[in-house]
Amino acid sequence: MAKFLVMPKLGLTMTEGNIANWRKAEGDSVAMGEIIFDVETDKITKEFESPGEGIIRKILVAEGAVEVLKPIAIIGKADEDISALLAEAEKAADSPAVPVEKPAAEPPKAEPGSPQPAVGGRVKASARTKKIAADLNIDISQVPGTGPQGAITEKDVTEFAEKAKTAQPKISPTAGVIAAGLGVDPSQIPKDGRIMKADVLAFKQNADFQKFADPQEFTKPMSAMRKIIASRMSASQETSATVNYNQRVDTTAMKLLREELKGTAKITYTDILVKILSRALVEFPLLNSSIVGSDIVTRNYVNIGVAVALPDGLIVPVVKFANKKDLGAISSEIKVLAEKARNNELETDEITGGTFTITNIGMFGMESFTPIINQPEVAILGINTIMDTPMVVAGQVVIKPMMNLSLTADHRVVDGSVAAQFVARLKELIEKPGLLLL
After folding, report:
1. What is the pTM of this model?
2. N or C end of the chain, less CB within 10 A?
3. For the stretch 152-169, what's the b/e string if a residue is b when 16 or more beta carbons lie within 10 angstroms of its beta carbon?
């Protein structure tokens, strides 16, 4: 029996989805579980699987935003009558707004000295005036009229012709010959004074080079993910009173810890830093808070978002209750979430509820940056590359693996002294990770 395919509701807060790409066309057969189209929400992109088998009889919405549970296609048998479903879909569709007819506005009265607007293809001018304009090879509709009600007079035409003559660029005889030989229009050469030979040659050279370079610009619409990123980043900058804090830390002990664990588990620097953050954020709850209206909401738990770069943007899966998990559990969960993010398999619950975000671009050699807060959180930590750096220790110059921490905090909640103490605590835990055992 034919039935509607409707826009799926992928989360409790989802109100509409955006059809990004139909994998099937009208007339195509589909099997149970086969991918029919891609749907984008304000958070993720998901593949829609067919709830049954049949043929795509009619696509009701080719692309664009659709409210959840609204019909978007009809699936059924090849010879099945779907007229009732089509009528139902048409009835459910929003009725187009009826345009309100407005009385026709009177044509504006021409001001003396302005070009005469053509009415029904006619220009206010006498036959003799039009003939003069034609003889002078002038478009009379471009001539400003000074006569009654903007009518164009013979004097208007002749004065316009004189101005056109004087507007022609002044050019030396030699430059004129060269321009003619090279096919250059002197009027296109941007020069106020007299055009000389060098001006013509330079213009020709630039024109030839531009033709050789073949400059082109390409435009493509933003994806739903990129639109959301753009909107949220702009809103974050407008909402938060951000202050940036940078601290250089010695990663010798952290690197040693990672090496010692190699035989047991594949632990990354991000894994270790998430564990360290989960400890520090419990000690500094203001960095783990958010603003709701005029209230500051603090928590006794830590949900850390770990930014994952995708080809079309950025997504932040969340490690829930990180403060209650050991390093091994955190590491395993981050790997699973990152893999699901790259395969577009994240569920809504896995990218919501974050209380603090960490973003690591150290693998790209970045030494410092200013990350943007992921609203409604009040802080974000940027991780940079580890660099061998000469340091003075006990009067001796030694090489240390140093890394910059880049914290952005919302000064509406987090004062500078609190942020500085938080960063100092992070530095202590990174340089002495054994403190996590206490």
Report:
1. 0.65
2. C
3. bbbebbbebbeeeeeeeb
Q: What angle do CA 137, 142, 143 make, to 5 degrees?
A: 85
From CA 420, how far away is CA 375, in angstroms rounded? 21
Give dist(CA 140, CA 152) in Å, integer: 8
Query: Does the annotation mark 415 as catalytic?
Result: yes
Query: What is the chain's pLDDT, residue by residue, as a tens digit (438 residues)?
Result: 888 888 888 776 677 888 878 888 999 998 988 888 888 776 677 888 888 889 999 999 888 788 888 898 999 888 888 888 888 888 776 544 334 344 444 444 555 555 555 544 567 888 888 888 888 878 888 888 888 778 898 888 888 887 776 666 788 889 989 999 999 988 888 887 889 999 999 999 999 999 999 999 998 888 777 888 888 899 999 999 999 999 999 999 999 999 999 988 999 999 999 999 999 999 999 999 999 999 999 999 999 999 999 887 889 999 999 999 999 999 999 999 999 999 989 988 999 999 999 999 999 999 999 999 999 999 999 999 999 999 999 999 999 999 999 999 999 999 999 999 999 999 999 999 999 988
135 labelled catalytic? no
CB neighbourhood size of 223 (10 A): 16
User: Could you tell me if 277 and 429 are in contact, meaning their C-beta atoms sit under 8 angstroms apart?
Assistant: no
Catalytic residue among 28, 139, 208, 415: 415
Are 40 and 348 a contacting pair, CB within 8 Å? Answer: no
For 8, phi then psi, to 5°, come to: -70, 150
